[in-house]
Design brief:
Chain lengths: ~450, ~100
């Protein structure tokens, strides 16, 4: 069945590519080189997108304007330092108990414009914590623009590997604040399925339209990749709860722009049957995630302000898990909130404050927390410096850094404020100071 | 049983194949005026029909004389301006040289 799905993707891709304009671009320069524009054109402070950046992505990464003729690659490095308020017993993921330096990620990107209507974002990442290389976010899209009775309709299709990675607003899970987090700090146990649970474990296909530069509509589906395929792509499938069949994904949003203001309001969701821990024979669980989001941007010069809010409700039927002894309840709910505000000066300095929380029904077996509760809540503060957003040094104008200091304060962690693990550790013990030098070139 | 499963898989494959063919046919047979290159709307880049200080479209690397832009849709005035402005250094030097000659 899975080989059948893979065949479908290959057939579809082949048909689309064969049918494309035969005039191929000579190169695949990545976006800044491709467009001739500095980082600040697409990003208020990377990776948050401007209205232009969003439309560049929706247009299939095809817009050009630069004179770069070199190879279509870019590199990202993320050396980091992590300190938690209280040391982590036994160490953090094979590292020391505290004050850890690590090259958290090293990524190679390729993609950009392939033809006038086909483009890609393809990322491969070396994970410096797990010490392995795997495919990372991937979004290959075909887009076309038509004029119908005075209305502009941009429409297209995307093949990608992570629900919400194809989205263009920075409220949804794949691209929301914090844009970078420590891999060596404790994180809350519970999260909704749409919040990156299936990242890189699935393939998805969806069609989208963007009407009159304002109204966005997308519908598609995701299916789990076979374990052999995942292993071949560097993913370790152990412990996954694969999607049974196809999980529908939807996104509706509107973004009016007036003067220096852009305001988006929308909804998104993912629903699926799930094979708990991949164990067949006892039926399936199911979940429905429904999110609402809004983002406001004031795009002044040099002052920019962005406010983001996303709220997700998950209804999780865990009857199969209950039968298998993997859950106490036959049904659980989760609610997730992510709200943040950034002030950005001249695309160079960024100051952000954010609130994250997850809460829902207690289920000690499902979540594995000491209290049985999934509830966690905290604040995140970040100061970042991006010295080359308007253009890098003359020897390599596309070099940029995001040098950041981030502090996370936990009010509640895995259902408790004190003694969160039964061994006397408090939520505040997980408060994290995180420093990074996010480098792109 | 095996034969039946294989028939089902074949049927499913055929269904998906024809679905894919249908989708791509639809994509390429658009009955409306399609624009080959997708450009960005003037609204999304805060285009204005007057300069911003000494920043004006005809000094930008993306400007296409007499009234176009590589990136922004629609008619563009040489003395307009938008958020994408990147100084075309060669054009600026030519203008400067002309000015000094005069």
């Amino acid at each position: 069945m899975r080989s059948c799905r893979l065949t479908t993707i290959l057939v579809l891709t082949a048909i689309l590519v064969i049918g494309l304009d035969p005039r191929r671009a000579n190169t695949l320069p990545l976006y800044a080189r491709q467009t001739g524009q500095p980082c600040a054109t697409c990003h208020t402070a990377f990776l948050e997108l401007t209205p232009f950046g969003r439309r560049f992505k929706l247009g299939g990464y095809t817009l050009d304007g630069g004179d770069w003729k070199g190879p279509p690659f870019a590199v990202m490095l993320q050396p980091t330092f992590t300190n938690t308020q209280t040391a982590q017993p036994g160490g953090a993921a094979g590292f020391g108990v505290n004050n850890n330096f690590v090259l958290q990620q090293a990524s190679l990107f390729t993609g950009g414009k392939i033809t006038d209507n086909l483009g890609a974002f393809i990322q491969g990442t070396y994970d410096g914590v797990d010490h392995r290389f795997a495919w990372d976010n991937t979004d290959i899209r075909l887009a076309k623009q038509v004029n119908v009775d005075g209305h502009t309709l941009l429409w297209g299709a995307t093949v990608n590997n992570n629900p919400t990675v194809q989205d263009v607003w920075n409220t949804i899970p794949a691209w929301s604040f914090p844009f970078i987090s420590s891999r060596l700090a404790p994180m809350p146990t519970a999260s909704t399925f749409i919040e990156q649970v299936y990242a890189q474990q699935v393939a998805g296909f969806s069609g989208y339209s963007f009407l009159d530069d304002t109204f966005y509509l997308e519908f598609g589906g995701y299916w789990s990749l076979g374990t052999n395929t995942q292993r071949a792509l560097g993913i370790i499938p152990t412990g996954e709860s694969p999607i049974d069949g196809i999980a529908p994904y939807w996104r509706v949003a509107a973004e009016p722009i007036w003067g220096k203001n852009a305001w988006e309001i929308g909804t998104f969701g993912l629903a699926s049957k799930v094979v708990p821990m991949g164990i067949v024979g006892t039926g399936t669980d199911s979940f429905t995630d429904i999110g609402i989001d809004t983002q406001y941007q004031y795009l002044g010069d040099p002052h920019t302000v962005t406010a983001r809010l996303a709220w997700i409700h998950e209804n999780h039927n865990t009857s199969a898990s209950q039968t298998l002894g993997l859950a106490d309840n036959s049904n659980n709910q989760l609610r997730s909130l992510n709200a943040s505000v950034s002030y950005i000066y001249d695309s160079t300095w960024s100051l952000t404050a954010g609130r994250v929380s997850v809460g829902g029904t207690a289920d000690a077996t499902l979540y594995g927390t000491f209290t049985g509760s999934p509830n966690s809540a905290g604040y995140i503060f970040e100061l970042a410096y991006l010295p080359f957003s308007h253009g890098g040094p003359s020897f390599w104008p596309w070099l940029n850094f995001r040098i950041g200091l981030q502090y996370t304060h936990w009010n509640k962690f895995d259902g408790a404020t004190t003694n969160i693990d039964g061994m006397g550790r408090n939520a505040s013990g997980n408060n994290t100071f995180f420093a990074y030098i996010w480098t792109m070139f | 049983m095996i034969q039946s499963a294989s028939r089902l898989a074949r049927r499913s494959l055929l269904r998906r194949f024809f679905g894919a063919v249908g989708a791509s046919t639809l994509f390429y047979a658009v009955p409306f005026s399609a624009t080959a290159v997708i450009k960005i709307s003037q609204n999304a880049v805060a285009y204005q029909d007057h300069p911003e200080g000494d920043k004006r479209c005809d000094k930008c690397i993306q400007f296409q004389p007499p009234s176009g832009c590589k990136m922004v849709d629609g008619s563009i005035r040489p003395d307009g301006y938008c958020r994408l402005f990147v100084l075309n250094k060669q054009a600026a030097m030519r203008t400067k040289a002309l000015a000094s000659t005069v």
